[in-house]
Design goal:
This protein is mainly alpha-helical. Helices cover about 70% and strands about 0% of the residues. It is elongated and about 55 Å long.
């Protein structure tokens, strides 16, 4: 069963990674960048502070905890346990992998830290901001999906790495959002 899933994952990766076009290379490199999204994060921070006022400190602490947790779970737990080579490090297919910027990353790719982090933040902020912004989930999950797909396009993750990363991240986001919501509601009920 594992061999079958690995084969499907590899074939799907080679198909998706093979769909590259020259004009999309800089776009996907931009989307995959860590600093790229700083203005987006500033807007999200503004929305949190605008709607939660003094309680926004709880959400900001939650975001910090969320990113630390999701990054440590993906890089500190999953990657060392599974030791699944990135496609660009897989000897069997590395010559078929398209790397737009020539960068392959660390040795292991399961699970995608980018997918885990972005889906954790998407789930977290969707749950906490949905009462103020009805369509926030669309924005957050389209953003997270774009970032996750960019990792396949960039040749550094299999679809399975991205899907598992997204699922783990979303679970982390939901758990920390529920904790933050309980703390906020407890403080509101006390006042």
């Amino acid at each position: 069963m594992i061999d079958f899933l690995t084969r499907i994952d590899t074939e799907l990766f080679l198909f998706l990674n093979g769909l590259h076009v020259d004009w999309l290379d800089p776009v996907m490199t931009f989307i995959s960048g860590k600093i790229t999204w700083a203005p987006f994060y500033i807007v999200l921070l503004f929305l949190v502070i605008k709607n939660y006022k003094k309680q926004s400190i709880i959400i900001i602490i939650g975001i910090i905890l969320l990113i630390v947790c999701s990054d440590q779970v993906s890089s500190g737990i999953f990657k060392p346990i599974f030791e699944r080579p990135r496609p660009c490090h897989n000897e069997a297919i590395k010559d078929l992998v398209y790397l737009p910027n020539g960068h392959c990353g660390g040795a292991y790719g399961f699970i995608s830290s980018h997918a885990c982090n972005t889906f954790a933040l998407a789930a977290f902020l969707t749950l906490l901001l949905k009462k103020y912004y009805k369509k926030i989930a669309y924005v957050m999950f389209i953003w997270a999906t774009l970032v996750a797909y960019s990792r396949i396009y960039m040749g550094v993750h299999y679809p399975g790495d991205v899907i598992a990363g997204a699922a783990v991240g979303a679970i982390i986001g939901v758990i920390i959002a529920k904790i933050a919501d309980k703390i906020i509601n407890r403080k509101v009920n006390r006042n």
